[in-house]
Specification:
By secondary structure, the chain is of the alpha/beta class. The chain has three domains: 218 residues, Glutamyl-tRNA Synthetase, domain 3; 160 residues, Glutamyl-tRNA Synthetase, domain 2; 125 residues, Ribosomal Protein L25, Chain P. The chain has a seven-stranded mixed sheet with strand order 9-22-23-24-20-21-10, with helices on one face. The protein has a seven-stranded mixed sheet with strand order 18-15-16-17-11-14-19, with no helix packed on it. Strands 3-4-5-6 form a four-stranded antiparallel sheet. Helix 6 packs across helix 7.
Length: 519
């Protein structure tokens, strides 16, 4: 998401003089699939960007890339190597010692050209030969030690079919594709910084390129309480720690999208963290802040009780039902209002009652008074418990003179206001309460480079509850944002919700002052 926002965002800032190309590196037919391509395009569109007519694939240039390779061979800058992959690795050297020349490095260009053409024709097996750039086996930069630029792969390609038996490496295709498209700046994450000399070597040594692009690097995003490595995320998926790439706990675009993060919030977050050249750790709370800021303006309000506790208003007439008018979104009058039923029996949050309140608790308690939001004040007179000693019901009275925020003279104002749902009209809905995926800020750092980061997985990263909700939520459409008042922001799961049976994913909680030791 950061890379998408950076690339497309910079192009928009400098429009119409600049544009951003969307190009897929489909140089490895064993890994590239149509589903992968479609998913990336969907992610870019979801974030609010459009590539217009500038959609490209590395495979668009396979013929030209091949011609460039023949050119390098003719100039004595590339050679066919018969060594096995294991032999090439063994002779590459280390960071403190130079590599060894391949015994095939001195082949004449004519012989290399013949072998390369036979590689293309499919005469050799996979791994039997490769084409390497002839640069410097003693270079302190390992990427310049005669890197492989073509390898044999007898695999079906999702765009070119079986036309090719050799495929270019990414480090070869990347700069030359940029040049062919007229790219001026290719923005990569910092791990590609040491690949830049190879990028520049290819651009400088291939003749006839229509452009001279440059590569620049930026720091990738690192968030607290999660991992960003594709390898580690893949492990979480494959070993069943999460439900898939779109699990709402995953830091993938499909995951945060399903959780209910908005494109505007993600763009605001990426703009806030900006562009840096050094790796740093970004606090997850900053991302959550951006999400709250956006959803506060756009999410419709609703009443839902996650852990219901029944309240009986003993002085409220039996059988009577009234309707309270509530604002759908105080940040947007155009959202209008709705009517919510209120009756003798209600549900409130169990956390909004304490039989033995601690200092600073200002919600309901025995003999205490609170205001039911947008209704009236109630006083608790009796606590009813079941056979196990658990609180099952509160018996209260209401004060009709306190409706609509009225404050009778001489009466102290209640310090607490709580939300509620009419028991007779409440609908049961599934709410998935998502939390941090890991228990430590840096699971990678805590585990060490070779440690098992999975031991820091949060066993309580999701809790599924049956909530009592106002009637309108029964018909909530998939993909809709809500603020469950005093609880958090929720999103109707686009995958598991069905008509009449919505599933709500908690996108982000509201700040709970009492949980931090405050009322």
């Amino acid at each position: 998401a950061k890379s998408i926002c950076l690339n497309f965002g910079l192009a928009l800032e400098h429009a119409p003089k600049s544009r951003c190309h969307l190009r897929f590196d489909d140089t490895n037919p064993t890994k590239e699939e149509v589903e992968y391509v479609d998913s990336i395009m969907e992610d870019v569109r979801w974030l609010g960007f459009d590539w217009g007519r500038h959609l490209y694939y590395a495979s668009d240039y396979f013929e030209k890339l091949y011609a460039f390779a023949e050119q390098l061979i003719g100039k004595g800058l590339a050679y066919v190597d018969d060594q096995t992959p294991e032999q090439i690795r063994a002779t590459r050297g280390t960071l403190t010692s130079p590599g060894e020349h391949s015994p095939f490095r001195g082949r004449p260009p004519a012989e290399n050209l013949d072998l390369f053409r036979r590689m293309r024709a499919g005469e050799f097996k996979e791994g039997e030969r490769v084409l390497r750039a002839k640069i410097d086996m003693a270079s302190p930069n390992m990427n310049l030690r005669d890197p492989v630029i073509y390898r044999i792969l007898h695999a079906h390609h999702h765009r070119t079919g079986d036309a090719w038996r050799i495929y270019p490496m990414y480090d070869y295709a990347h700069p030359l594709s940029d040049a062919l498209e007229g790219i001026t700046h290719s923005l990569c994450t910092l791990e590609f910084e040491h690949h830049r000399p190879l990028y520049e070597w290819l651009v400088n040594n291939v003749d006839g390129l229509p452009g001279a692009p440059c590569q620049r690097e930026f720091a990738r995003l690192n968030l607290t309480f999660t991992v960003m490595s594709k390898r580690k995320l893949l492990r979480l998926v494959k070993e069943g720690f999460v439900g898939g790439w779109d699990d709402p706990r995953m830091p993938t675009i499909s995951g945060i999208r399903r959780r209910g993060y908005t494109p505007a919030a993600v763009r605001a977050f990426c703009k806030t963290i900006g562009l840096t050249k050094y790796n740093s750790l970004t606090d997850l709370q900053l991302l959550e802040h951006c999400v709250r800021e956006d959803l506060n303006k756009t999410a419709r309000r609703a009443y839902a009780v996650l852990r219901p506790l029944k309240v009986v208003l003993t002085n409220y007439p039996e059988g009577r039902v009234e309707h309270v008018e509530l604002v759908n979104n105080p940040e947007n009058e155009a959202e209008g209002k709705r009517l919510v039923p209120l009756s003798r029996e209600l549900y409130i949050e169990a956390d909004d009652f304490m039989e033995e309140p601690v200092p600073g608790f200002h919600r309901l308690k025995p003999g205490g008074e609170v205001r039911l939001k947008f209704a009236f004040c109630i006083i608790c007179h009796e606590v009813v418990k079941d056979a196990a000693g658990q609180i099952s019901e509160l018996r209260c009275t209401y004060d009709d003179t306190t409706r609509h925020g009225a404050k009778p003279e001489g009466r102290p104002k209640p310090k607490g206001t709580i939300h509620w749902v009419s028991a007779a009209h409440a609908v049961d809905v599934e709410a998935r309460l998502y939390d941090k995926l890991f228990t430590v800020e840096q699971p990678d750092g805590a585990a060490g480079e070779d440690g098992d980061f999975t031991r820091f997985l949060n066993p309580h990263s999701v809790e599924i509850v049956t909530a009592k909700a106002e009637p309108s939520l029964a018909q909530a459409r998939a993909g809709t944002h809500f603020q469950f008042e005093r609880v958090g922001y929720f999103f109707t799961d686009p995958k598991d919700s069905t008509p009449g049976r919505p599933v709500f994913n908690r996108t982000v909680a509201l700040k709970d002052g009492f949980a931090k030791g405050k009322a």
